[in-house]
Design a protein that fits this description.
Helix content of chain A: 55-70%
Largest interface: A-B, 15 and 20 residues
Number of domains of chain A: 2
Largest sheet of chain A: 2 strands, antiparallel
Shape of chain B: rod-shaped
Shape of chain A: rod-shaped
Number of helices of chain A: 17
Strand content of chain B: 5-15%
Structural class of chain A: mainly alpha
Number of helices of chain B: 2
Subcellular location (chain A): Cell projection, Dendrite; Cytoplasm; Mitochondrion; Nucleus
CATH topology of chain B: Helix Hairpins
Radius of gyration of chain B: 26 Å
CATH class of chain B: Mainly Alpha
Strand content of chain A: 5-15%
Number of strands of chain A: 4
Order of helices and strands of chain A: HEEEEHHHHHHHHHHHHHHHH
Helix content of chain B: over 70%
Largest sheet of chain B: 2 strands, antiparallel
Number of domains of chain B: 1
Number of strands of chain B: 2
Distance between the termini of chain A: 94 Å
Main location (chain A): other
Keywords (chain A): Cell projection, Coiled coil, Cytoplasm, Mitochondrion, Nucleus, Phosphoprotein, Repressor, Transcription, Transcription regulation
InterPro entries (chain A): Prefoldin, Prefoldin_subunit_alpha, RNA_pol_II_subunit5-mediator
Strand order of the largest sheet of chain B: 1-2
Oligomer: heterodimer
Family (chain A): Belongs to the RNA polymerase II subunit 5-mediating protein family.
Distance between the termini of chain B: 15 Å
Amino acid sequence: MNPQQLSRLKEEQAKALTQTDNQISQIEKYKNDYKVLQDRLKTLPDQLTHEVMVPFGKLAFMPGKIVHTNEILVLLGDNWFAERTAKQAHSIASRRIDELDKQLKDLKAQRKLLEPRLEFTSGMQDQIEGQQDVKEIVEEYDAEKERLWDEQHKKNLRKQREEARQASEWAHKQKQEEVRPKEKEFSDQDLWARLDALEQEEADRGELDSEEKWDNHSERPEGKSVSWKDEATLLSDLEKSVQPDSDDNVADDESEENEDDGDDDDENGSEKLNARSSQTERPVVRTIRFTHTDTPSHEISQVNSAGDASIQSPADIYKLYSPASILKKPVSNMKMAKASEGQSAQRKGINFPNEDRYCETVVSQLAGRPNSSNSSQKAFTGKVLEMSHETSGTSGHTATSSSHNVQDTAEKSEVKEEQPRRISKFKAARMAQQGLT
Amino acid sequence: MAEGAQKRLQSELDKFQTVQKDVAKHIGLRQQLEGQLSENTLVKEELDRLEDGAGVFKMVGPALIKQDLKEAKQNVQKRIDYINGELKRHEKLIKDLEKTADTHRENLNKLQQQFQQAQVKAAAKA
């Protein structure tokens, strides 16, 4: 806003205000005059005559007498006169005072209206002229500058993202490297020793932990299982012990774990492994043949199959994870291949020439495995991959083209040798066990 | 072109100014009338308060002329009515004048814009 306009406005407002003030003061004066008049009118009729100096023209006064002290000729206005007594004149004067009071009130109200306007205007002026510490916020807009800034910002963002990506990659690698050697260090003996220790620990703590999340698993060997009862009726004890095991594997993978990080998980896992090892697993693994009817309840059939040999009941994994997107397919394929491989390895232990290698890959897998993507696993589950592998196992894995997905198996066979596989550590342990045997 | 615009602008401005003067004049007249009205109402009130037979005078020139109270009241009432009529007339007049002033103002704005455009054009040419 233009300061000049403002000052003009201010001027006008000030003028209006002074006008009002003038009117007010004039009315006050009238009022005072009327009051004096009233006093005079009161005392006038007290005497019959008054000695006064009578004004005679502008300059002169003459001594004179007021007679008829109770006869007042009152100017009513508009050149109307009325003859009144002093008392009546007095009442007229008081009425006029009332009238003046009314006007005075109005004028004062007007003044109240005008004052804040003037204040606002002058405040505004002050602000604009920067006399107070209030400032108008002005932001320049320069299209060119804006554009440059935008570009720079985009660049920076990209750079930052790149850096973040590299950092995460590096961290990932680092972790893999870190974990891999560590895992490698574990000889099978160490592994088993560790598992034994963990089992021991769990035995010690088993009752204490009964409230915990995994307690149904840990209790199962003692035959106290409650929550799994439904399945338990279907399964043998062995199967029961295996079933949670697969759960544990998943959990472990998920948390990207070395063995020490989750006691409960490890306890369960070790217990199960031990149970398996101590029980019939090894003999069973190799001997069992099973066929799948195309029952709708994949889970149960899977459980059965898992019970006898493979831990990897993918159905369980599927339960724990939501299906992954299609984009992850290659990875999941690889995983599947791995898993099947692992299973077959387990079962056919002797058939594999390079078992040590599997152990290794398995372990590395253990370290690097991200959240599993399970759409393919689900498919895998449904299709009973074990079967095909079982059959193909005798002839060697490259030859595995069986009743189901040819493409899958082909991929698997390809992937098998070249890439490090991801396998749960328990599976690894089992494989290691087989390797020992 | 520019000169024609300027002439038109000038004439319009003159018209506008005369109208505004008229408005101001009539507003002044109205104020006067309002003052007279209030004065007369006061007189009327006082006359109403007077008892019958009270001496009432009208000053005409240098002389006070005694009037009958009743007659005085009627006169004052007539005067008040007349003033009210005058007030209304002036009110209407002022409104009309303001309207015309507004139209003149709009015209003036238009002309001013045209004039400025013409000036800019002239400047661009030169």
